[in-house]
Description:
Elements: H1 4-8, E1 12-16, H2 21-30, E2 36-41, E3 53-57, H3 63-70, E4 75-78, H4 86-100, E5 104-108, H5 120-130, E6 136-142, H6 153-157, E7 162-163, H7 175-187, E8 195-200, H8 208-219, E9 226-227, H9 230-239, H10 244-258, H11 268-273, H12 280-286
Helix pairs in contact: 2-7, 3-4, 4-5, 8-12, 9-10
Amino acid sequence: MPNHSEASRRPRIAIAGATGRVGSSLVHRLVGDPVDIVALTRDPKAVRLPSNAEIIGINFDAPPTLAEALQGADRLFLAHGSSDRQVANETALIDAAMDAGIGHIVKLSAMGPPTKAHPFDWHMAIEAHLATKDLGYTVLRPGPYADILGKVGSAVAAGDWGGTAGDGLVNFIDTSDIADVARLALLDEASVDVQRAYHLTGPAPVTMSDVAELLSQLLEREIIYKHRTPTEQRVALIASGFSETAADMRLGLEKLFNESVLAETTDTVELLTKQKPRSLSDWLASNLSLFRD
Length: 293
């Protein structure tokens, strides 16, 4: 039976990826909860977080330091920017979490089919590693983030937006909704030992032409999505500043868009948060400055 100090101790939540699109939103949601937050980062000096969040530097090339950074933590939110080090780094943190006695991991993954395309294959490998561990976990598999559309903002403003998505359907999700679900999973005391996965989507799928129409209404000028071949799109992406690797990853994603592979709609966000997922039109309206001249 726990003593009084153990029973009253605030849960300690470690967040790997606290400066990412979902992680940063998650941190700001957790600051009002009765928990202690520790952000794990490779560059502590570059992190700007709420004053009550502790920041600890980690070194993926020195695995013992990972377990040391996780000592005393009860839960771990696991997210890593897409890179060729993602599998090695996330599996190292999973192993360190086991060594440190973490009770539950919330792993940010991605919705998608079994495929060789990055980063979907990386997430599959990490999920497979997590499944070998004897601890509770929640895998979040969201659809494409709405904010990836922000990356084409300058192209929209210049009247040169296009790609290979064709008339395929895509269900974009606001990263705020993902963060809301992650927060609930991290705070769920009743399901610490449970192993589960959630598919998270926005309210409805759209085509790129639908997105262009929404932008046209909001910007009060005609926006057109130009249909391109993969070769044409790769040239356009690299000319706009994408590296060759990033361009290939974007082409792989657009192929899934074209085939309507990521058109799935679930009600999971609403079931868990009791709020309807934010619509793409709301996200575009809130970020309209990205698409202006």
